[in-house]
Amino acid sequence: MARFDPRGKANRALLVGVPDYDFTRPEHPFGVAGDLPAVAHNLTGLERALRAGGVFAEDTITVTRPRTVDEFDQHLDAAVDAAEGLLLLYFSGHGAVPSTGDELWMLMRRATIVPGTESVFRGAVPWKSVLTVLSRARAERVVVILDCCYAGNASAAWDALGTAQRQRTSLLMSVQANNRIDAGDGDGPTPFTAQLVRLLRDGEAGFGELADRLRAHMSAHHTTLREPPEPWEPQSRSATSGADVLLAAPPVRPTGGRTAQPPPVLFSEPYGAGGRRPPPRSARARGRLRALARRPGGRRGLVPLTGRRRLAAAIGVPVVIAGLVATGLAVFDGGDGAPCTPPLELRLLTDPDLEPTLRKAAEAYLTSKANRTADGCRRSGITVYSAGAAATVAAFSRQSDPWQRPTGDDNNPQRDIGPQPDIWIPASFASVDRARLTSPERTYVTLEADPEPFAYSPVVLAVPQELAAEPAADRVGSLAALTEAIRKREARAEVRRTDPENTDAGLLATIGLYGGGTGGQDPASAERAVAQTGPPSRTGAELLCTLPDDDALDDRTTALVPEFLLKTGVGCDSATRTGRMAEYPVDVPGLSPTFVRVRWRGADRDEDARDHAVEGFRTWLTGKEGKTVSASVPSGGLAVFGQDGFRGGSGGHRPLGGGDFGALTDPGLLPGPALPTSMTEALKRYREAEGPGRVLFLLDSSGSMGGLWEGPGGAPGIIAQSLAGLGGQDEYGVWGVAGEPGSPRPYGEVLPFGKHKREEAQRAIPASAQVKDMEADPYQTLVAALEYMAQRGTDDHRPQLIVYLTDDEDNNRLAEGGRLNDLLAAARGRRTPVVMASLDSGGCDKGRPDAAVSEASGGRCLDTKGDLVARLRDEVARTGTGDEG
Amino acid sequence: MRHGPGRVGLRASAGLLALLLAAGCDAGASDGPGDGRQTAAGAAEIAGEIVLASGRDVTGKGGIRQQLIAEWNRQQEAKGSTSRARLVELPGSADQQRSQLLGALQSGSAEYDVVNLDVTWVPEFAAAGLVQQLPDRLVDSDVITSVAGTARWKDELYSVPFNSDVGLLFYRRDYLASAGVTKTDLGKDTGWPVLRQLIGALDTAGKKLPGPYAKGWTSQLDASYEGLTVNGIEAFASAADGFALTDEDGRYAGSVADLQAGLDELRNRTQAAYTLPDAVHSDEADTLTDFANGRTGFLRHWPYAYRTLHQSLSDQQLGVAPLPGKAVLGGQNLAVARGSQRSAAARQLVEFLTGKESERCLLDAGFAATRLSAYEDNGLTCNAAKPAGQATAGPAGERTDRMPRDSSGRPAYARGTLLPALENAVQRPRTPLYGAFSQTFTAQLARLQGDAPPSDAELAGDLDAELRRALPSR
């Protein structure tokens, strides 16, 4: 790059510094925050460095500490008039911006701040006027260096300069706009100028390189006085001529070159004892810097905040706020026009059954007054999401490490469970204990649960009206007795519950079904009592929504679901669906949603603000002090839960809202939350009910899959990820599906069928699966797979599953010559469900072959309209015995 | 396993390393030409993997990103550098991606060096100080001007466009031919009035069209997600030249008159006579299926539909044109996390992933590339990766890719249709409070879909008032 070399020209350097102020608070309410002794060191150090730099002769450097604006103007005029080559202007002192604008003002010794709706600075120089004066200069190049708070606010006026001025004027600003900075402790120069001087002494220094190196250094080693602190990033505007400017060219030191040299120590080390510097932005350093910034009477900022309300709202440094109160400046305006900073984001993970209600609650909270800061901005944003309940518990207890730091494609809870939550609301109080790990040194997450649940909903039998018991007394009893009574009224009556892996409600229902303890039922026969064609529904709402698809089924089927769903889960087919009444099994534990604050190790960048935001939502959601409110008119989040049919979390579990929706207001003593051990035991027995599972994966490897092959989202990666729910006792294998047309065996083995170590299988599949330049024959392959699995399952009842992962490109071959019907008949005849996993967004649309095949076999059809990978993993997990523990 | 003390130890030693480097932190400043910022920063960096966080993608396009990262790693190894990059997948849901990226960067709950941001998130992440300013040269004049506009916030560069996206008009040439339309190739000058005439011709042809045909066009008008915002902005921006709902600072800058004109345009476009009734419940996947099944003659969709639709429709059946009026830009930009301890290497990775060759690879794989050279420079080829479907089929095999390509291997429509569409596209309002904007905007527009829709004047007044409440105003 071309460089302007001013050596030998008529250059001028004007170094302006204001170390002492005549009016300081608290003595003078309109004064500045304090003196800046470091500025005196700045002037000495910089003058020496410039003298040694060889660009400015001794008599061309002017150092001044102006008392008034007039004094400053005189010096500036003189320098502007005299400079022909390079004109350098340096300012260090208090900088400020008015409450209603962005312009930077430079405060001279006698400066005062006059409060009002628009604060006014007396004895201060507006930066804009400085630029105007500089534009008169004859100098070939102008360089300005500002070391003060809000220095970055100077860039706007530079940007507004005419082309000619921008071509010759370079501007270096000590900090990004709207930030205050540390002035050091006064024993040495300010941190920015200290580094500036080091670099000027260090060798030939051009403006561009200087700016880059300052920025790199400051942002790596210092933070601004914002709360929470942010990296301190000097800004620059290089003259648009494209040529750099040489600022210093000191004589080269004799040895080694600068890379081997420690930086020369020009000043006493500003970081106190032992010359130690804080390591770059480690958690500890952040904490220490924050502590320093907070310490009253500690380091002083280069300037007080001057009633700039949006900043005050955003950063709230206690020392500064105190100063503002003293001067009576308006910090918070609350009127519109003050831009809000983006709110703090809270991640809220919950149980799939609770997700709709919590979404409603979060939406209500976000726009509520409770979520407003004093200046009318939102305090926090909340994103509500859910994940399978059993997988969530496992992820907290055993996968907090990869959840915080995923290292492989196959075990990544950030992707498979979701964001690392700040708040977790499990549907059962007991799940908190299940999610805690016994050895805390192996966990990267801490769960802080409220002492009791904030809401409650019993798991009930939602009985078709025609089959329900009439007298209220007959609607309460043991699960076995109640179901027996229903079967007496209708011999073909069925009972269904949801997937115990996916929701706590499904698992609580399972506790009731198995009868608990040693005297309970054998899980396999209990499972047969709720068996159904096709996979179980994933949530209670889905179950209640699926039943009306078949009127006869709707009329005879009782759903074992949380009571609140009788209110919120009956929206689909509302005109034709069968009405249902709640019956209350006393031996099925109830839902007990509980507020849990989740903390991640090392996540302390905004700890206080995050705590504050979480606490704000907790108070609103659960009622004050963590106690649930049993008052007749709940407010905040409890009102939302009341509208959705929930009961109070404690006391007599009275309904939080009103309305007749088939529930009993007071069914007598309601069962409490489950014991953690009962849930863990029930899940284990469920997984082992039918013994280890068998899964045959069919991986479409035809040419068209080439585009869907690579990476963790590619087809082999998807299959590898879906093995997560398979344990060492389960048997599985993978066939690659592609072959010459008419070939009798249109598939090849990718992973032999049998027991595997999961990690090895996860590595082996992507390694050995290959796309072939051939077609797939889904018909032949599925027929062969159904036959293969039928032979495996002849002498036991172990769960089996076939998974066909495909892009549907060869689906036309399924229907060739009417053989689709043959395939559907074969699928119905075998007892192996087939999951058709289509990498086409419409693969499961009505009438598509994938939908037909999966339905006929009793399997599920998945396509990319939903989260195919997660759902496939769940389907496979239901077949296997799953993760140990 | 990396559990327990092992990891604590790693962190501690990393801190020690940083301390040692800090003492000589300017040491490396002269070892790299032309970019003092990178080398100066690099000297104080901690060695280790660069983590790039991005949403899960199973559409087949995701593989190209993985391949480009692998190529970068190969190049680092060849250079003797210890830097390696690793992709961490986030959930497929955009809401969850945004939540995790925001929450993690704000709190430090996870460490990311590079984050892949939807273009509408850039102002929020920049204003919150979660991503670093980047050197201007990373977005040079080769980046399509409109696309480059997504990368900045308040004049500073915070992100680099990785892949773009833009609304396009897909249509059935065979339907138009059956309806007696003589020119079945829609140029980029086709406006909505012409489109409505063509739909009229299709409706008149009636029985000559295949059975599934139901209505003229479909689009993503479901008010429960971003689709209605996109379609709304496209209508609004088409109604008034230079239309903008926010100024450069993200403050509300709309007027009731502009809003009323926009609502009028949206209402015209979506009136029942032309629009598939299912559109108000449809997202991208639904509309793609309806169009692929022949239920409409026209479809507003994104570039990836070009590849998907060509799997089932031939070149004679399927046409694509820039969307009449203004189309909205989508896409993702890469940004370097503020807290990254590997900023310099992270910037180099971003530079590689968004460079000319990478963009060409992304284009070939079905993404809308962000650089002019990817579309225009025939000398530029993708050697860094094997984009999806580029494999040549064996003699007996099936074609791996039915997407038509030009003689240089790009998707056939890239230069003549996609590039002009991108160049003419507009951004959604740029504000750090985009989520609140979108929520407010769709909630009001959804009233048009109700049983008793308000008049344009009434709705414009309400929309204006609500947007003033949601966003700071001038």
Automatic annotation (TrEMBL), chain A:
Domain Peptidase C14 caspase: start-end pairs: 12-222
Origin superkingdom: Bacteria
Region listing for Disordered, in residue ranges: 220-240, 254-286, 398-421
Record-linked InterPro entries: Pept_C14_caspase (IPR011600), vWFA_dom_sf (IPR036465)
Family annotation (Pfam families): Peptidase_C14 (PF00656)
Identification of the protein by name: Substrate-binding domain-containing protein
Coiled coil: none
TrEMBL record, chain B:
Recorded family membership: Belongs to the bacterial solute-binding protein 1 family.
Stretch forming the signal peptide: 1-27
InterPro entries: Bact_solute-bd_prot1, SBP
Source organism per UniProt: Streptomyces flavotricini
Protein name: Extracellular solute-binding protein
UniProt lineage: Bacteria, Bacillati, Actinomycetota, Actinomycetes, Kitasatosporales
Classification via Gene3D superfamilies: Periplasmic binding protein-like II (3.40.190.10)
PANTHER family tied to this protein: ABC TRANSPORTER PERIPLASMIC-BINDING PROTEIN YCJN-RELATED (PTHR43649:SF34), ARABINOSE-BINDING PROTEIN-RELATED (PTHR43649)
Residue stretches of biased makeup (Basic and acidic residues): 398-408
Superkingdom classification of source: Bacteria
Annotated TM spans: none
Pfam families linked to this entry: SBP_bac_1 (PF01547)
Region (Disordered): 386-413
Keywords: Signal, Transport
